[in-house]
Amino acid sequence: EAALRQASEAAKKIGIEMPNVKKMMEEDAKEEAKEEAKAKAKVQAAISAPGLVAFPDWTPKIPEFTPAGPAAKKVVDDVLQIVQTGTSPLTPVALADAWEKFKNDKYQFSRMRSNINKTITQTVTFRELEDPHQEVTMEATREPREEITHVTLSAPLPTPAEAKEE
Questions:
Q1: What range defines the domain where residue 24 resides?
Q2: What is the pLDDT of residues 95-153, one digit of tens each?
Q3: DSSP per-residue codes, the chain
Q4: Structurally, how many domains does the chain consist of?
C-alpha cells in the first residue's frame, strides 16, 4: 500500500493521474467471487438434478471388479463427475491391459503409469472422437504388500447449462 501511495504522489508531481488500483482490485475480487458463486450454484444444481447416474453405454468392463456401492455424482477438482469405486484382485497393470484391448478408431486413448514408493497406479482414459465427446477414466492403484487393487471409474458430467448449450 505504501508503494501505491508513493507511486501516486510521484505521478501527481509530473501531472499524471494515477488510477485507483486498490478500488480496481476490490472490484475484480467482487466480480471473481460472484462468478465463483455462480459456478458453485451450477454444480450444485447438477448434483441435485434428477436423472439416471450412469456411465456411457460403451464403457469397457473392468475385469473382476467388485463395486463398493452404486455410481454417484461427485465434485472432483471443481468438475461434476459420475464416480464409482471398488476393488479387483487383478494388478493395476492387468486391469489397464484389459482396458487397453478396447482401443479402436472411435475413441481417443491415453494411459499413464506411475510407481511411487512401490505404489503402482495405472490410469486409462477413453474419449469419444465424435459428439457428444463423452469420456471415461479408470484409475487402478495398489499399495505395496496389498493383494487388492483399488479402482475408481469416473466420467465428467455436463452441468445443466452446458447441456443446454450443446
A1: 2-46
A2: 999 999 998 888 999 999 999 999 999 999 999 988 878 899 999 999 999 999 999 99
A3: -HHHHHHHHHHHHTT-PPP-HHHHHHHHHHHHHHHHHHHHHHHHHHHHS-S-----TTPPPPTT-EESS--EEEEETTEEEEEEEEEESS-HHHHHHHHHTT--TTEEEEEEEEEETTEEEEEEEEEESSTT--EEEEEEEE-TT-S-EEEEEEEE---HHHHHH-
A4: 2
24-65 pLDDT, tens digit per residue, is 888 999 999 998 888 777 777 767 777 678 898 899 999 999
Same domain, yes or no: 8 and 60? no
68 with 136, same domain? yes
pTM comes to 0.69
37 plus 96 within the same structural domain: no
